[in-house]
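Weekly structure sync, notes
Attendees: PL, DS, HV (note-taker this week)

Item 1: Transcriptional regulatory protein CitB
DS walked through the input record. Source organism listed as Sulfitobacter dubius. Sequence as pasted into the shared doc:
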Amino acid sequence: MDDTDPFERPTLTPTAERPLLGLTVLVVEDSRFACEAMRLLCLRSGARIRRADCLRSARRHLQVYRPTVALVDLGLPDGCGLDLIAELTQSTPRVEAIIAISGDSHKEPDARAAGVDGFLAKPITSLSSFQQAILAALSEERRPLGPRVLPDEYITPDRIGFQDDIAHIAGVLGDQPNDQTLDYVAQFLCGVARSANDLRLEEAARALAHKRALGKPVGPETANIAGMIQHRLAERIAI
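Item 1 (cont.): predicted structure, written out as tokens:
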């Protein structure tokens, strides 16, 4: 909902049980599995969520409304999330809390340099860590009054989201991927596989990323990933 809409509901007051009540969170994330996890975290916390799966979609959202919080993945199919973060930090009015998310914790310094208010490393499944990261980035008046118990809860997103991500990468690999596309495949699968606890797929994605970083041919690594993707697609059909 547009924050300037005169018919919008009055701002809700956060509570100890739902500390993000009244907030609108824009999640800029191309993984459906990761986004489902954040949807559940927002639901448990009282926040409303909107999703954009690429930079272009996020910019369209921001032309219509201004979220309270923006969670921006650093690796997106049409560019780097750092570019959007730089735009958000310079916009007027500024989004109140801008938080970078990534499966690569080594990217946190780059995100900090771009002006983020916080950083969350994937997989993001801890309710207390999620809430604390957002509350720490907000002004004091946005936080619930008084003490609150930190929830000892971890969410488990539906595996359908993981299968959707696998189908997405199958489509990407089927279009004769170039170097830029292969870099995207490697970083995307590293995060998704870690979130899904798919260690073999994560290892294969890391091997691809390593060879790409060295500038070496990646034919065997790409073929290995393509085979693993097809195997997981077959599992989806069987289910």
